[in-house]
Specification:
alpha/beta; single chain; 6 helices; 211 residues; 31% helix; seven-stranded mixed sheet
Length: 211
């Protein structure tokens, strides 16, 4: 595996992991990656072998953590850390580079791509940021963080705003060719099928997003 692909970063806010987050960590390690889990507080139990604990306050101070105060038009998202997580990943990838994975992603195949950027294709917006790769010092991530820091706050009710910002700057920097099909679609019927049926995942998928 190329060195630029070895490390995968993720964030967790809290003192314990559920089986889903444990699966995320173990799946990436099993496929040859070193997972760097960024934390604001110690976990109540140990981490799997191959997972490196990193201090999240190095990227953004704990005082910057926020949760959405309101739900979206469908009533979803109140209390979510999603907006803060987007800010965190943009700044982290600018400073560290490498891969980012949300903690509800399961790795199926090694993420060993030669390309400097990789973005996960989506069926609503061109790309989403729950699994992506960027080089250290990327002007794309600098632009995303700068705009998101100004616009994505606890008062935000547009769930897709941070992702729209990502797509806007992918276009601005003409990086659309790095948007690829590497996972399942974010559709409940797809996720539900694999929750209730013991079936093989599609061979082309490098990961599965459980939403």
């Amino acid at each position: 595996m190329e060195s630029q692909n070895r490390i995968v970063h993720g964030l967790w806010v809290g003192a314990s992991l559920s089986p889903l987050e444990e699966l995320c960590l173990r799946s990436f390690v099993a496929k040859g990656h070193e997972f760097h889990l960024w934390l604001y507080e110690p976990l109540s139990h140990g981490l799997p072998a191959g997972v490196v604990q990193r201090p999240a306050a190095k990227i953004l101070p704990s005082s910057s953590i926020f949760r959405y105060r309101h739900g979206n038009s469908f009533g979803h998202g109140k209390g979510s850390l999603a907006g803060f997580s987007d800010l965190f990943r943009y700044k982290l990838l600018y400073e560290e580079g490498g891969w980012w994975a949300d903690m509800d992603v399961t790795c199926l195949r090694p993420l060993d791509f030669e390309a400097p950027y990789v973005f996960r294709r989506h069926d609503v917006l061109p790309a989403v940021g729950n699994l992506m790769k960027c080089p250290k010092g990327s002007p794309l991530m600098a632009a995303c963080f700068q705009e998101a820091q100004e616009r994505v706050t606890a008062e935000n009710q547009d769930w897709l705003l941070p992702i729209r910002i990502l797509n806007k700057h992918i276009c601005n920097y003409q990086l659309e060719s790095f948007i690829v099909d590497i996972t399942n679609q974010d559709r409940w019927e797809v996720v539900e099928y694999y929750l209730h049926h013991n079936r093989h995942f599609a061979p082309k998928w490098h990961a599965f997003h459980w939403m």
